[in-house]
Design a protein that fits this description.
The chain has about 300 residues and is mostly helical. The chain has 13 helices and no strands. It starts with a helix and ends with a helix. About 25% of the residues are buried.
Length: about 300
């Protein structure tokens, strides 16, 4: 009798989780514009976002309550950030449920909705919080640090779950496949702050290296190179990126991977020339932290890679 009762309870719990997952996917579709009631009279993005957020509130899901009066008077930037906040909560709850269910198959439209709201999190939340932190005044720096730290750690928990039994799942795959480069500015901004300024710096640095290790050598170099083009990063971040990029160039096949990255680039003309000049500068100037006697390795590796093709 006990076994039977436990089995029934387990089945009921699973059904509850499936129902909630279905509702969360419904929220994802509403936020992505592929579900809910579409108002053709809404001509501005503000009206569209307000309409979507009101529909989310009407679905009555825990932690997603958005009183309509809270939307009054919000400008576009505030509505975008709020949408990003809601999208992140949906991803967190979905990830938790998906990890608990064995029948985790998702339809193409489900994946599409999840990809869309994930992009909203990075575009309207993490990206803006990273910029806000890097441009904050002394009076707002601490609060900006807390906000960015929380969002970054929440996203890292989706990519690398703390619980050993949890697999990465679809959210992890979406972030790694489509948004790794969008995570790196926040990671480098936080993880390489001067000592004593951020207590979670070691965790962020370790997570950054783990994220980069998820990719092949050439791919990780491309991610670092793309992040280095972000003009809003602090010097501590750009120094760390240059260091990690240089270490990869020194690895076996590092130079050839770098050249492959440039040659396969879609940039043409002066853009491509600029990239060659940047690589030449990097090869001729080892970053701080790499011994100066290693600098010969750059020239030697470059010569060994280029001369056979000459």
């Amino acid at each position: 009798m006990t076994t039977s009762t436990s089995a029934i309870s387990f089945t009921e719990d699973n059904q509850i989780l499936r129902d909630k997952r279905k509702r969360l996917l419904g929220v994802a579709r509403v936020l992505s514009g592929n579900g809910g009631v579409q108002n053709p009279t809404s001509k501005s993005l503000e009206d569209v976002l307000k309409s979507r957020l009101v529909q989310v509130d009407d679905l009555d899901i825990a932690d997603l309550a958005i009183p309509k009066e809270c939307l009054d008077g919000k400008d576009l930037q505030a509505l975008e950030h709020l949408t990003g906040n809601v999208a992140l909560i949906v991803l967190q709850q979905f990830h938790s449920i998906q990890a608990s269910l064995e029948d985790g198959e998702l339809s193409t439209s489900d994946h599409s909705a999840l990809r869309t709201i994930t992009s909203l999190v990075f575009r309207w939340k993490l990206s803006k919080e990273t910029k806000g932190f890097n441009t904050a005044s002394k009076g707002t720096a601490l609060e900006s640090l807390k906000v960015l730290s929380l969002s970054t750690k929440q996203l890292l928990s989706l990519v690398f779950p703390d619980v050993q039994s949890q697999k990465g799942g679809p959210i992890s795959a979406i972030i790694l496949n489509h948004h790794a480069v969008d995570m790196l500015p926040a990671l480098f901004s936080l993880g390489w702050l001067p000592p004593g300024q951020y207590e979670d710096g070691a965790y962020i640095r370790a997570s950054t290296l783990k994220l980069l290790a998820s990719f092949r050598l050439g791919e990780s170099m491309e991610l670092l190179s793309a992040t280095l083009q972000d003009g809003g990063l602090p010097k501590t971040a750009t120094n760390a990126i240059r260091y990690l990029l240089a270490r990869r160039i020194l690895q076996p096949n590092g130079i050839s991977s770098l050249l492959s990255m440039i040659i396969s680039s879609e940039d043409h003309g002066s853009d491509l020339l600029d990239r060659y000049e940047q690589i030449t500068k990097l090869l001729s100037t080892p970053p701080r932290g790499i011994a100066t006697d290693v600098s010969g390795s750059f020239t030697q590796s470059w010569t060994q890679t280029v001369e056979p093709a000459a």
